[in-house]
Write a structure and sequence with these properties.
single chain; about 300 residues; alpha/beta; Rossmann fold; Arc Repressor Mutant, subunit A; 2 domains; 5-stranded parallel beta sheet
Length: about 300
Amino acid sequence: MDAYGPLRVVSLVRDVEWERHIRLALGPAPIIRWIHQSGDLDHTSGLASANVMLWHLEANPQAADTMASTLRRIRAAMPSSPVVLYVRVTPAVAGLILTAGRLGVDGIALRGYDDLLRVIADALHGLRYGKACEQILTQISPVGDPATLVLAQCLRHAFDSVLTVDRLARQFGVDRKTLHNRLRGAGLPSAAVLISWSRLLAAGWLLDDPHQTVAGAARTLQFASASELRGMLSRYLHTRATDLRQRGALRTIAESFRAVHSTGGHRSLGIRYAAPVTAPPVADQALAASPWKDGDSPLRD
């Protein structure tokens, strides 16, 4: 799961049976460090190097009152790691799950229903690539720019799926023809071109990692092969991956995008984002920059 070593887990769990279950559910490869009392987080060293915190939430009379303080302790000890709550659904736990969501845990796994490793992988993916989207968008254009509105949505999908124009249009609440017309009317490139640029920008972010290969970046972004990614770099940027890395791949690709698709003077898109998803702050601001106000219709066909 971790590209550069075994998965490192800190597990906050007091129950011996749950401890055995977690060990079996995660398999032999992950390295697990067990914490049995939340107070131990304050004086246990080395926790920040773990990939993820797995928190077994027990239903007890004090749980609702202590959740916030426990989460603060976890964040202080592991500021860069996602927190995954692991519970068995019961009437007593249901309300605690809602509280955990409001407090900002990064993932919730339900024993007997969810694949624990899959939930952890999704939480790690969201943390890593959410930061990637944030970094990419800050290099592209001002938050309120119409190009950023569309690129923010494209980037959300670049790391985990191949986005199509039809799918992008549906997520803005219009059909592909309306999206095309709105982009053209705002002086922006086509949706297909913006999707391609989002994949290139995502590739640039990956290639700035010295551990990442072109083949690895291609697999992450679901290119058919490394040759396909190299071909796109050649068509759009007229350069090779090796040369990009030497100059700073993301910075160079962002500069090329700004040069080819200058954002000055673009008009409003007249569309809004239609599908509720979780996004990094800059992406949220970009999507909120749509001109539609409460009560307006999103130009559906």
